[in-house]
Fold each of these.
Amino acid sequence: MLAALLLGASPAANAQTQIANTVHNLTPGGPGQLKETRPTGLCVYCHTPHNANPAIALWNRDLPAVTYRLYTSSTLQAVPNQPTGSSRLCLSCHDGILALSSLRKPPPGEELKLGPMAGKDLLGTDLSDDHPISFVYDSELAVKRGELVDPSTLTSKLHLDATKQLQCTTCHDPHEDRRPMFLRMDNADGALCLSCHRLEQWTDSSHATSGAAWNGTGPNPWPEGAAPTVAANACLNCHRTHSAGHGPRLLAQAIEIDNCTNCHAGNVAQKNVSEQFAAGAKYSRHPVDVGPWEHDPRELPATMPRHVTCADCHNPHAATATAGIVPAVSGRLRGVPGVSADGTPLREATYEYEVCNRCHGYAEPQVPGIQRAEATRIVRVKIDPSNASFHPIAAVGRNATIPGLRPGLTAASRIGCTDCHNDSDWVAGSNQPRGPHASRFVPILYREYVTADATPESAVSYDLCYQCHDRGRYVTPQASGFPHAQHVVDQQTPCAACHDAHGSRENAHLINFMVRDSNGREVVTPNASGRIEYVSLGTERGTCSLNCHGASHDARAY
Amino acid sequence: MQRRKSLRLIAAGLLVSVLLAAASQAAERPGVAPGTAVATGPVWPMPPQPARVRFVQSVGGAADWGVARSVWGRIVDVVTGRHALQFVRPTGVAEQDGVLYIADAGAQSVIVFDAPRHKEIRVTRAGNDVLVSPVAVAPGPQQTVYVADSYLKKVLLLDRDGNLLRVVASAGLERPSSLAFDVRSGRLYVGDSKAHVVHVFDAHGTAVAVLGRLGAGPGEFNTPTHLAVAPNGDLAVTDALNYRVQVFSADGQFKYQIGEIGDGSGNFAAPKGVGIDQEGQVFVADAMFDAVQIFDPSGRLLLGFGGQGQQAGQFWMPNGLYIEGDRLFVADAYNRRIQVFLLEPRAAGQSALSQGAQP
């Protein structure tokens, strides 16, 4: 100690006095007690002293004695996951034997997720659950991977080693434990992570700014030692640098949606999304818990395997709580890639339907359903503004004179997917999240919409349509126009028998006759001359040729 | 009818392709009988010196150890897309009667390649405990295996199918990280790297002695990390932070020590697994040197072999080491494999120090 003081304020002396009080003081005396029986000091445990006179191997006297190169190898290429440089020194002790190494078990206080044991991760190719080390971090990598700062602009607190590689020592200073875990920087608000990782739209996102804290119910979603609010935890809300539950992207939980639902269960976040997906809770839902870890941030919509998870619609780095004005995306869908109405993949969706188009833009539904005269079932194709008619999701509708709209809606109004596809129990201002998570009505509909033939008409049967279209007009006989009352009330024909709720490629008024219902039974069939068609003859005039309920229509006009 | 026929053709085509895939999998990895020396592998020292250590094989999966999957097993693998077992970071290795035991701390499992029974077993839990940090294995009596989990602070005894037989020790262990079993006396040695002692358990599982304490003198340890029992009953202890290996007699008396800290041949920078062969020579793996060094009992360096790399006979931070008969097993942790070497016996007339013909 005295010697250190005499040496003055040299860095070496400073390092010595600080490391003596850390757990890296490996002398037999332990931290704080420099009872050394040999003059080797504190430093030799890592800084191996040079032996100028190494031994000659008696079985190999021809060869000279060897001095081993402990850290560097100019020619050797390490393969991924092989530590190089100073990281070898750390890992030569932190191997679980001499000192504990990083573990896949979460720290005490968190539920042990058995995911890593049984899941695909263990047998797949990415076997690492720690932040990668021993790789060159240069401008080329920053550009190629994206969302990384150029290393020349890195804060001076974090540095790469002499070969421009990121090592353990980039984030940890083994001499100095003023901060927990020997970190070089404080990680409040994710400051350490954000020194290298630059995420677009992070700074004003909910996860970066929310002061929400755990309300005490259920298990603590945060590990021991975490900060008390979402904003202060920042990255550590969902990610773990070491012992990540899921290696790729270092996510904390081994089960994909747990990363979200651990907090979005009414215990931290206000809205309870977890409840929506609880088993048996609601009949119709996006199957987010089927199949592990299909989502890949770089997936291409046209070729990706069929899957859905929270991250397919939400970007947790960019999402905000701002409400959206239809048809634009709400803050909750900010920063999510999309597919435009004509099928072009977009880096960021500006309209709500572009988010849905990512999955509902290329693939047909798997569940057999209603078959129509014009058979396409891909939603993006049905709402395409180049179609003959469509609900005004992707563009303002073609029909300038829609009778019977509810007050507040006009022919120039736009709607979003979530106006019809929403939680059936959602009420404005409640803690239920708005959106197509789950619902009582198939397929995730906000209100009832019966499509079966011979349905007695009522305010409930076609409740979904009546949200926007005034029921009176279709229930009471009208003076002119199509005789809806006769069909819907008297003949108990459902709206869906003639109209396709998304759009019709060939006909006006979203007319696309239902040839078979969702049970496979025939509804509208060709008439005696084999025709099944609708012809529009102007406002409130047209002809139908078909056979339905035994009645043959042959260019029957209204 | 037409549809039926084409369906049958499709089904037949699928079956044939699955069988072909399974067969090709087998053809790519023929089951090699364990211990078969590779004629073209590296030897040390290089000729014209007489060979002392000969590379035998590198074990990266069950097929390398001669554990072949049955035909149906392989078909199931192709259909289900099951990958072959891969090591993540093997730290401990042991072998007995053709059964290879690997403690894979990175995969949080103990892996058993049972060549005689053609079985490949991965143990991830023992009784009620999920294995967290299984770092050491030692073969026990009657085809059992001891496992030390340094996080759970337990030593467990498993049977040949990986089922828990009993918890051998848990109370009083701070970080059990090494094991050695003496077949002749039935004694189990457990190294506790945090408490700086070696516990001794007798054949009935009762704790009979505690060897050592924190310190730098003879018989004292600073973080003992690896153990080995010699054929004559001596116990070798890697005294990691004293940068030496100490050897004790079977009744716990200090006999001798080897090595000191340094970066040169004959020194230790990160001594790991230790073993003593039939001729009393001491083998020590060093993780920073990426090499195994061989010493005679007086501490003189006989040979160092290895070097950093991924080729046969090279290492990337080797950890555990085990000697069974004339074979040496090294857990090559960051190359994700076990390497097997043959220890050539001394030719008649050669002492440990001579090399036969003069250069």
Amino acid sequence: MIEARGLTKRFGDVLAVDGLSFDVLPGRVTGFLGPNGSGKSTTMRMAMGLDSPTAGDVTVAGRRYHDLPWPLREVGGLLEANAIHPGRSARSHLRALALSNAIDRHRVDEVLELVGLTAVAGKRVGKYSLGMAQRLGIAAALLGDPPVLLFDEPVNGLDPEGIRWVRTLCRGLAAEGRTVFISSHLMAEMALTADHLVVIGKGRLIAEMPVAEFVARSSSQSVRVRTPAPERLAQALGPAKAIVVPQPDGSMTVTGMVAADIGDLAAALGIAVHELTPVASLEDAFMELTNDAVEFRGVS
Amino acid sequence: MTAIPTSLAPLAVSSPTGRAGLADAVRSEWAKFWSVRSTGWSLAVTALAVVGICVLATSTGHDLVPDPTRRSLVGFFLGQLTIGVLGVLVMSAEYGTGSIRSTLTAMPRRPVVLGAKVVVFGAVALVASELLAFAAFFIGQALLSGSGRNHAALGDPGVLRAVVGAGLYLAVLGLLALGLATLIRHTAGAIATYAGIVLVLPIIVGALPTGLDNAISRYLPANIGLTMISTGGGHLLSAPVFSPWTGFAILAAYAVAVLAAGCFLLVRRDA
């Protein structure tokens, strides 16, 4: 379990994390969501004892990271995949970490096997792709069989297969009763992986709730519509103040009208409708909630 | 890569009692030290510098050699640069590559991390430097006597102290470099500062008026080194010097002070 209480971090004039309090409970995957620059990584780094809080506290299993007797056996952290000397092999990197926490050297081969790096374990890490480095980072996190896992953007640089693997792994780790805390700016990925969400913006807590509830609270539900006459329907929907966005697959997404009204309108005009699916995306809910809390925004 | 497992057997052995300490950190740092190429390269180049310059300095000429021991050890003034680079890299490479984050999450008590680096690098630097000092001495004396010139024996007055002193000098300078890298955290900046202290500072001080030069120059690491590798304790310098062991104590104090300042900042700064 991870507990943050009034966690605050100031860098000069910038308040990166501002009085953040939340709990990350065991047995489920908790997603840590926020736009870029919202303070996710800083929070993760404070939890791992790399940055010290300006005020407040974050504890893992009831202790500050600094006070954990065997840190790698209690917390597995993945913070930026490049936290590895490029001149060292994956096996050497993991062996050195294992030695620091009195972990048996056989464990190194086990985690290498688990992340699929056995064949390249003797290669210098500098020659690894971002995806391989990310897998090595996950191997390091699992080295000490820790009950708590903190992954900062674990699917960064991974191919679709790798993303699916991380998702399955995280769900598996949570099912074993571990505390799994993953940060991401990919809402769609979080919708598939996480059970619970901690959402922050500008360093402040915006929401802490189950994923399903987060999505349900979103007011901007949209409807996926498939019709052989998309242009006619779009024209008819325009005056009804609905926003119509054509999709690459030929369907269109309509926001601002419920499915029943769209169906009625199409029927009145004699337009055939092949699909009418209400969709509520985590992405939309997220955008809506963090709209005021985006640090940097392009001019549109 | 379709059959990658997604679950893992638990650790066979549960957590030992106590907590991860200096012994664990030393084992880890030892493995890290020998698993990068820069270690072997730096040590090889140091050996080449010390022995190579010794051969050059003792195999040519037919003059009377004022201090044959020192003549065979002059390569240490180039060796101090390469051992310094290794000392810097032991810490600065962690920041340059980002691996400091892995290191500090495995061992969050930062003074223990620095202590382990001092133990590992200090031990290797001391053993390597002493081996090189004795190797350079014996090779140099053999070459001097081979060309029929005056040479020293280990039992002659001050000789053993100068040879052992040469090794100590190099090892302590390496630790000074490690301390500078802990303070500065950048490879280039730390190497530049280190080279400035051991090479440039003597030139600047030498250009000062005699009174100032005489007051300051005995405190410079390079001049302390010269007294340490000379059998006569540096009587060849124009300015007054400390005795070899007093000089060594001052040099060691520099290294301790810089390492202590580095440790203080290592604990205080975000990684």
